[in-house]
Amino acid sequence: MSRKLKFRVWNGVEWLGVDEFTLWDLEHPHKGHTFQQFTGMLDSNGKEIYEGDIVKRKNDNLHFEVVYSDNEAAYLLKD
């Protein structure tokens, strides 16, 4: 199973949707731009969840940041 890599970029004013980047773009980010990768997950409203998003857990209303762990090779929730 494969999935397309998907990113969004914060340019300091607004989020920009970006479908494809070259490897050079990702290794040499533009000054003042924040790149976030799509996790492949959707929230309960069907909205895409990206690395760096803040999510709320329904059962206790606690908030967590979505982060990528190199050690776990997975996206995790950080409090």
Give the N-terminus to C-terminus distance in angstroms.
Answer: 31 Å
Approximate strand percentage: 35-45%
Rg, rounded, reads 14 Å
Determine the oligomeric state from the structure.
single chain
Mean pLDDT: 84
According to DSSP, the number of beta strands is: 7
> What series of H and E elements makes up the topology?
EEHEEEEE
Principal-axis shape equals globular
Largest sheet: 4 strands, antiparallel
Task: Classify the helix fraction into a percent range.
Answer: under 10%
Low-confidence stretches: none
Please give the count of helices.
Answer: 1
Order of neighbouring strands in the sheet with most strands: 2-1-3-4
Structural class: mainly beta
Describe the structure.
There is one protein chain. This protein is mainly beta. The chain contains 1 helix and 7 strands; from the N terminus they run E-E-H-E-E-E-E-E. The strands form 2 sheets. The chain has a 4-stranded antiparallel sheet with strand order 2-1-3-4, with no helix packed on it. The chain has a 3-stranded antiparallel sheet with strand order 5-6-7, with no helix packed on it. The model has no long low-confidence stretch (mean pLDDT 84).
SSE layout:
Elements: E1 7-10, E2 15-18, H1 23-27, E3 34-42, E4 48-50, E5 54-56, E6 63-69, E7 74-78
Antiparallel strand pairs: 1-2, 1-3, 3-4, 5-6, 6-7
Compact overview of the structure:
Helix content is 6%, strand content 44%. By secondary structure, it is mostly beta strands.
List keywords for this structure.
single chain, 79 residues, mainly beta, four-stranded antiparallel sheet
